[in-house]
Write a structure and sequence with these properties.
With 480 residues, the chain is of the alpha+beta class. The protein folds into two domains: 325 residues, Sandwich (Immunoglobulin-like), CATH 2.60.40; 140 residues, Neutral Protease, domain 2 (Orthogonal Bundle). The chain is 30% helix and 29% strand. The protein is built from ten helices and 23 strands. The strands form five sheets. An eight-stranded mixed beta sheet has the order 5-4-8-2-1-14-17-16. The chain has a five-stranded mixed beta sheet with strand order 19-20-21-23-22. A four-stranded antiparallel beta sheet has the order 6-7-3-11, with no helix packed on it. β4 and β5 form a beta hairpin. α3 runs parallel beside α4, α6 packs antiparallel against α7 and α8 packs across α9. The longest helix is centred in the C-terminal third of the chain and has 38 residues.
Length: 480
């Protein structure tokens, strides 16, 4: 989720190496992608060592592995920035050593050093490869996915991450401050994190162990079938814990005024979504209240929720929790099909109220979105702006405002149209079928349509693709 709080207030690899040869056919592939990461926090620097292993299921004669270097999107001279404006301090990553299969590897970078290509001995299908890296990461001063501010560290995508392999090549998608430009497939992680003992740490998994030595503490984590691994740390966190639906839940906050109330929303949402859509696949789930420029952001097993979200906090908690089904469990391409990622999640956060038996609250949420989007669409037409109202463009085609209107609001109404036509029981059955069929895979709208068709015994492809297109939708709301 990446809607600005200000706008909200104003508006009312591989499958384990990138199973990504597909996302069109979703064939079951097992590449045994594994990250073994050892990282130490030293002031504003992360010093890391990692080993990435996988079995080649991508191509006969595979001769390279391409890694995202996301921290370089926080560099001062970055062309494709993760930020807008000026940062008090910039970030980046420097790779100091890389070996592949035990030998020093030949490396190449793009102009911005946002991608690293590691040369490999030509791999036959089924061959295994191990790549070792050492690096230092400078943490920027910002309130974004990756950064530090107000004694709080937000540490996501800080490590070199294998790019998705698709259509015979590794994807090299530029970073973008609009939307979610980070696309990944499932992997297993073993991560050791060493930091000052004064910090309270949240992570994408529950710590297996914690050892103290002097003024440092080392946490050890393990997570399987996740799409990333994120951390957050602050000396000021208070922690609430519970166990719901066989998952350990954690709520981290500095201000405890509404922590219990907010955590109750998280617990309820986690149970409702599990009952409706099936298990999340997580062992633990952490919600972190934090200084953050947007209302919230999802990662596997951990989400950020802005401490400044105010009246939008409940909506953000419901939305980010839903992403553990519609991001972590079932992946999609957030760059080329952001409507599937954010539209379904936005609908689910409203659908929560229906699942909880509050039909009036659900109806009001949908009515509010219809009103906002209808006004947006009518305004574009009256002004003859010529703006494309399609919801199936890439994130690079949108402004932040257009992204919110199309990927969140219009796309939410797509899924609500299915509900209006088929009712609660069948809609829930469609979503559960989608979750079960594509768990730990990367799905497309075609896959979602197929899951619905299987349940409904009819073809909803025309309806779905009609909503995604540029045709008028205000007539659907009686506002022609």
């Amino acid at each position: 989720m990446k809607k600005s709080i200000l706008f909200l207030l104003c508006s009312v690899l591989i499958c384990c190496l990138l199973i990504a040869c597909h996302p069109k056919n979703n064939e079951e592939t097992t590449a045994d992608l594994m990250y073994d990461i050892d990282v130490t926090l030293d002031g504003k620097t992360l010093r890391g060592k990692q080993t990435v292993t996988f079995r080649n299921v991508l191509a006969d004669g595979l001769n390279e592995a391409v890694f995202h270097l996301y921290p370089n999107a926080y560099a001062e001279n970055a062309e494709h920035k993760a930020y807008s404006g000026i940062l008090p301090a910039y970030g980046g990553i420097e790779i100091s050593a890389v070996t592949a299969c035990g030998e020093t590897a030949s490396l190449s970078y793009d102009d911005e050093k946002q991608y690293l290509s590691v040369a490999l001995p030509a791999l036959s299908v089924g061959d295994r490869v191990s790549i070792d890296m050492e690096y230092a990461v400078t943490i920027p001063d910002c309130r974004l996915r990756f950064g530090m501010r107000d004694n709080t560290y937000l540490l996501s995508s800080f490590y070199p991450q294998l790019a998705v392999y698709e259509n015979g090549a590794f994807r090299r998608d530029p970073f973008c401050a609009v939307g979610d430009p980070i696309y990944s497939e499932t992997a297993s992680y073993e991560l050791s994190f060493t930091c000052p003992s004064s910090l309270v740490v949240a992570a994408s998994a529950k710590a297996l162990s914690k050892t103290d030595e002097g003024e440092l503490s080392t946490y050890v984590y393990k997570a399987d079938n996740v799409r990333d691994f994120a951390l957050a740390a602050s000396p000021d966190y208070n922690v609430l814990t519970a166990r719901e639906s066989d998952v350990d839940l954690f709520y981290f906050s500095v201000d405890t005024t509404r922590a219990e109330q907010n955590f109750a929303v998280v617990r309820s949402a986690f149970n409702r979504y599990t009952e409706a859509f099936g298990p999340s696949g997580l062992g633990s789930y952490s919600v972190v209240e934090t200084p953050f420029e947007y209302s919230g952001m999802e990662f596997s097993g951990l989400v950020y929720v802005s401490s400044a979200a105010g009246e939008d906090t409940e909506e953000t908690l419901l939305h980010e929790t839903a992403h553990e089904w519609w991001y972590n469990l079932v992946g999609s391409d957030p760059i080329k099909q952001s409507a599937l990622d954010e539209g379904l999640t936005t609908f689910t956060s409203a659908y929560y109220y229906l699942l909880a038996g509050d039909e009036n609250a659900f109806s009001q949420k949908i009515a509010d979105m219809k009103k906002v989007y209808t006004q947006y669409e009518i305004l574009q037409k009256r002004r003859q702006t010529g703006i494309d109202l399609s919801a199936d463009n890439t994130i690079y085609d949108y402004t932040a405002y257009q992204y919110t209107m199309l990927s969140y609001y219009k796309s939410c109404l797509l899924f609500n149209n299915l509900y209006e036509l088929y009712g609660k029981d069948k809609t829930t059955a469609c979503l559960r079928s989608y979750a079960e069929e594509y768990a730990h895979k990367t799905a497309s709208f075609d896959d979602f349509i197929a899951a619905c068709n299987k349940v409904l015994k009819t073809d909803v492809g025309g309806l779905v693709k009609g909503w995604l297109g540029d045709g008028p939708t205000v007539t659907t709301f009686g506002r022609a």
